[in-house]
Amino acid sequence: MSQNKDLKEIALLFLKLGSIAFGGPAAHIAMMEDEVVTKRKWMTKEHFLDLVGATNLIPGPNSTEMTMHCGHERAGWKGLFIAGICFIFPAVVITSFLAWLYQQYRQLPSVEPFIYGIKPAVIAIIIMAVYRLGQKAIKTTELAILGIITVVACLFGLNEILALFGCGLLGLALFFFKKRTSNLYSIIPLFVYQTSEHFTISNLKIFLTFLKVGAILYGSGYVLFAFLDAELVANGWLSRQALIDAVAIGQMTPGPVLSTATFIGWQINGFSGALMATVGIFLPSFLFVLLLNPLIPKMRKSKPIGAFLDAVNVAAIALIIVVCIEMSKSTLTDWRTIVIAIVSLIAVFVYKKLNSAFIVIGGALLGYTLSLV
Questions:
Q1: What value does the mean pLDDT take over residues 348-367?
Q2: Where are the domains of the chain?
Q3: Sign of the CA dihedral 31, 34, 39, 44?
Q4: Euclidean distance between CA atoms 354 and 357, whole angstroms
């Protein structure tokens, strides 16, 4: 009976957080710390911080995985699944509704001016994310050089996923070179099979594509945009314009940024596509947290794996920069979009605590106003 009470408490808490958690992973984790540590005292602050650090060592969206860790602390594996599902659920429902509206009305003049203004505002938000993440990721001169190399390589056409893991392996090689250690370490490489066939897009292909992205997505959910650009836009499944619109919609909804996958899946194959994309993108996180939780303390103490992940984080920032460049080429095409982008940049850097949802809404309103000029 006590466990049922705990599960109900977990469900209600993370449904609430999933409904109000705007502002990205850092904001989500801050809300969780207040609810789980300060108010409910499910764990100590030190243990909570250990779990926050551990989420950076495995693929997946950090804040969503933190909900799973918190649920596991309270009620074991059942709590893990309930916490994760309840946190994701509100964003998926809202995004599905917006995806349906977008599919039905995006060609209407009354809607298009708002979408027109959202696109440059999203670029400003992602640039701010690059700035914040970059401050934490670029710890050494070597990492900065690796980041620059990754940006240049991707601009010249290197596959983004290969760039991410290639940079990680270079970071690992630098670690061994600097340490000149004779100890033997082993790493199990992850080989990613890339397909570029242009067949009819089935729900199975949608599921497997998003499963692959969810299984290798390190760092912030913003990196998702770079991966989807490589997986979907390059293969002709989705236009870059539709991807930009999906980014905008993702910023307007609470909860995990990865709910953008729901929107994209809907555009590709309706409700069933949205369901497959959602399950695919989030399933690896549930499995990683469940299977790797006992190994996390040892992984944190491993210097070689730490060096690998430091380089991966820098590569992730580089991928976001490349996406920003590509988005800018297709979005900043006239003086109106340039004005919106500049105003949005000023807003995100001057008012750093301003919720990104307000930037998106402001961009939409400004786009509509300028379209009347």
A1: 80
A2: 2-371
A3: positive
A4: 8
Residue 339, pLDDT above cutoff 60: yes
What's at 96, amino acid-wise?
A: S
**Of the segments 64-73, 130-139, 162-171, 319-328, which one has the largest average pLDDT value?**
64-73
Which sign does the torsion angle of CA 276, 282, 285, 291 carry?
negative
Alpha helices in 106-140 (DSSP H): 112-137
The answer to whether the beta carbons of residues 61 and 25 sit under 8 Å apart is: yes
Q: Where are the alpha helices (DSSP H) in the chain?
A: 2-20, 25-32, 45-55, 62-105, 112-137, 141-155, 160-179, 203-216, 223-228, 240-252, 260-292, 296-301, 303-331, 335-350, 356-371
Alpha-carbon gap, residue 265 to 8, rounded angstroms: 30
Q: Please name which of 161, 116, 160, 167 lies closest in space to residue 137, comparing C-alpha atoms.
A: 167
Contacts of 343-352 with C-beta under 8 Å, sequence gap 24+, read 344/120, 344/121, 344/123, 344/124, 344/125, 345/124, 345/127, 345/128, 347/124, 348/124, 348/125, 348/127, 348/128, 349/128, 349/131, 352/128
Task: Give the amino acid at 32.
Answer: M
pTM: 0.61
**pLDDT of 189 over the 50 cut:** no
Give residue 7's pLDDT. Answer: 92
Nearest residue to 118 (alpha-carbon basis) of 89, 90, 98: 98
Q: State the pLDDT at residue 190.
A: 34
